[in-house]
Specification:
The structure holds two protein chains of two kinds.
Chain A: E1 2-8, H1 13-22, E2 29-35, E3 42-46, E4 49-53, E5 56-65, H2 70-81, E6 90-95
Antiparallel strand pairs in A: 1-5, 1-6, 2-5, 3-4
Chain B: H1 3-35, H2 42-69, H3 110-131, H4 138-161, H5 165-168, H6 177-195, E1 202-203, E2 206-207, H7 215-232, H8 245-271, H9 276-291, H10 299-322, H11 331-349, H12 362-393, H13 399-404, H14 406-411, H15 424-427
Antiparallel strand pairs in B: 1-2
The chains are: A alpha+beta, B mainly alpha.
């Protein structure tokens, strides 16, 4: 099993969610997040003085899936979250040791 | 009813209704100031704006009104404490017999005269709260407000409106650019200087802006103030005078509109974007500036006065920040700078006696005399009051309380419980 953590642009959440569901992802966890990468922050002004907003608002999507769905899921994210400009975000892929469904106690892929 | 009692009834109705509009300006100030401050201080800013009118009501009733309008010397009134003393209002002029001779030009009952003047005194006091916001102790603000409305405001006011020496010298201030706004502004300035800037506002020689937390509230507040000004200026006729109230309302509105547009344009050109807080301040600047001249000038002059006010307010917001005088809401730029300008504008633009209308320098000099005298007195008296309060009970909250927010520190509660506050570091760099 794999875990995908994707940091994306907030306004693309709907599109990424739909695309992931289409390839068979059945659940996800979404968090409002802030951070910076190559996009860096941006400048805002208030009453004539500039200030730096260093942490840009992003959305983080966490998805757990069986190994065979990995490539399709990553493709789905790349297709929907990409604008080609700095700030599109990243997908972090990690091996997932175990999953437990709290309601039934099922483990592993049965719990996905 | 005969014609005389009909006039008294209509005048009374007019003055009470406009006084209620001015009272509602407290809500405007509360929303404007809260919106332009941080969410961690919202309860404190709201509490100050709310309680200040209650404090003013007591202070003005007990001593303020007597000092301001009671018969006395050219320097201060000496009668009419607690509204006591002979008075046969609504008798007017020669027929008036009582201790409030300075108000014998208006034919309404004494209770109405007091109520109308009270909401003005309350306005002067509430100007201070925004400038000293986000660092002053709640109790210290309450004590200062009492002193301001009981003693400082009425003495300056007596000189101009209470039959004092400035009135005798020909000084004109129709609805209070000096009496209300400059007095509030000077009191605020001395408070800001003695308190010092908010923590983190000026670091390493750089201005570190602290954005307001709710521009929607600030905008609502400014709309309420604009509306309230239609009570403030036209009501200052203290009579349903058909020749005056419409023109005064129109002049008031045109100056507000011109101030709004001038500030917007200047902010757009100089700062790159039309900053909403500047748009709001510009509107208020036009309103403050037209407050003294609104009954003495034409509508064209009102537009010019508003345009100048809008330019002045943007320039002075930037100026005060440059010299590290920290005023979170722009109260000094709006009320002090434009209170002074509006008072001067009477001398320049008055259709009768104004410098630009062939009246020579007489009125302008009278105005300058009033600006300097009231300014010097208010600054000195306020500085003394702030200093005494500082020595007795302290003025400023602890640095720790200021960082955590005055809401929990002063009041033990939050404005928005349940909402996770945004950490400062996420909003801006700690430059």
């Amino acid at each position: 099993m794999k875990k995908l953590e994707s940091v994306i642009r907030p306004h693309l959440l709907e599109a990424v969610k739909d695309a992931l569901q289409e390839v068979g992802v059945v659940g996800m966890t979404v968090t409002e997040a802030r951070g910076f990468g190559r996009q860096k922050g941006h400048t805002e002004t208030y009453r004539g003085s500039e200030y730096q907003v260093e942490f840009v608002p992003k959305v983080k999507i966490e998805v757990a899936l069986p190994d065979e769905l990995l490539d399709q899921a990553v493709d789905a994210i790349l297709k929907t979250a990409k604008t080609g400009k700095f700030g599109d975000g990243k997908v972090f892929v990690t091996n997932l040791e175990d999953v437990v469904r709290i309601r039934t106690g099922e483990r592993g892929e049965l719990a996905l | 009813m005969d014609a005389v009692s009909t006039k008294v009834a209509l005048d009374t109705l007019w003055v009470v209704v406009t006084a209620c509009l001015v009272f509602f300006m407290n809500a405007g100030f509360a929303m404007l100031e809260t919106g332009l401050c941080q969410s961690k201080n919202a309860v404190n800013v709201l509490a100050k704006n709310f309680i200040v009118f209650a404090v003013s009501s007591l202070a003005f009733w007990v001593v303020g009104f007597g000092l301001m309008f009671g018969d006395g010397t050219p320097l201060l009134g000496l009668s009419g404490w607690l509204l006591k003393g002979a008075d046969n209002s609504p008798a007017m002029g020669e027929a008036y017999a009582g201790v409030f001779t300075a108000l014998n030009w208006t034919g309404v009952p004494l209770s109405v005269k007091f109520f109308f003047q009270l909401v003005f005194a309350g306005t002067a006091a509430t100007i201070v709260s925004g400038a000293v916001a986000e660092r002053i102790k709640f109790i210290s603000f309450i004590v200062f407000s009492f002193v301001l409305v009981a003693f400082v405001y009425p003495i300056g006011g007596h000189w101009a409106w209470g039959g004092g020496w400035l009135a005798t010298a020909g000084f004109k201030d129709f609805a209070g650019s000096t009496v209300v706004h400059s007095i509030g502004g000077w009191a605020a300035l001395t408070g800001v200087l003695i308190l010092g800037p908010r923590l983190g506002k000026y670091k390493n020689g750089k201005i570190n802006p602290i954005p307001g937390h709710n521009m929607s509230l600030a905008t609502l507040g400014t709309f309420i103030l604009w509306l309230g000004w239609f009570g403030f200026n036209p009501g200052s006729t203290m009579a349903a005078d058909v020749n005056a109230i419409g023109l005064v309302a129109l002049n008031t509105n045109m100056a507000a509109a011109a101030g709004c547009l001038a500030a917007t344009a200047l902010a757009w050109i100089v700062l790159g974007k039309p900053d909403l807080s500047m748009i709001l301040n510009g509107t208020l600047a036009g309103l403050v500036a037209i407050t003294a001249p609104c009954a003495f000038v034409g509508t064209g002059s009102s537009v010019v006065i508003g345009l100048v006010a809008g330019v002045l307010v943007v320039g002075s917001v930037l100026f005060f920040d440059r010299i590290k005088v920290d005023d979170p809401v722009g109260a000094l730029s709006v009320h002090l700078v434009n209170g002074v300008f509006g008072t001067l504008a009477v001398g320049l633009f008055a259709t009768e006696g104004g410098l630009f209308f062939g009246g020579g320098f007489t009125q302008t000099l009278a105005q300058l005399k009033g600006i300097v005298a009231v300014g010097a007195f208010t600054a000195a008296a306020s500085a003394l009051a702030w200093t005494l309060i500082k020595l007795a009970i302290g003025l400023r909250v602890t640095a720790e309380e200021e960082r955590e927010g005055l809401d929990t520190g002063e009041h033990g509660m939050e404005a928005y419980p349940g909402l996770v506050a945004e950490p400062q570091a996420l909003r801006m760099s700690e430059a």
